[in-house]
Amino acid sequence: MGGFYGLAILLGVALLLRTGRCDVNCGGGRPGQPGIPGRNGWPGPKGEKGEPAQLPSGPVDPNILLRLKGEMGNRGEQGVMGPKGFRGDLGPAGGAGRSGRPGSDGRNIGHGDSSPQQARSAFSVMRTDSSYPSLEQVVTYQHTVVNTPQDFNAATGVFTCRIAGVYYFTFHSMAKVSVCLRLASDPPFTKLGFCDYNRNFDQVLSGGAVLELTAGQRVWLESFRDQQRPEETRDTNQKQIIFSGFLLFPNPA
């Protein structure tokens, strides 16, 4: 019985061996399908730093030289200034600046008075009498416009300097006949005359002067005779004379 089983095994092996062998006429199976592409591999490690580049002794490609960074050269000379450009638009106004420091204390400019407000002197008077002003006499006035602080005497027609300094005096007259007027004062200044002989129209006469006066010196306006005709000095038509003066600045005490 055991011999039977051994024989059966030998026969089975023989059949398998025969089945696995194929001669030249034996046909093969179909090629298999390509497999699915595999995934990318992991990045490799960073390589070591290379050696410094060395230029060859022969010709070098210019493109390679352009890619090589050289050392910074010296600063070049300043070029010629170009033409002036067009003027730009005006910008917005800036803010207000900071206040400046206070100035130094002022000094007294009055004459014998501690208050600068007293260093004032001004007058303006008007003659409205239609009679001709008396020749070689001080002109008097009927109306006072300004007299601060009472340095002018309207009754006598004389201004008396109270504050030594530089003054400006001026007068204007209007009449139907020629009138000659002159600005006069105590020495050192004496008299400065003005006349107008335009007989075809109303006579308008103006004059003025800047005088430097000392305290107590007097100034006035007076009429004088020049080329007036006798009938002119007797004229009684409307006339007007305005005499004014004021302090420009006082002299230092």
TrEMBL record:
<protein>
    <submittedName>
        <fullName>Uncharacterized protein</fullName>
    </submittedName>
</protein>
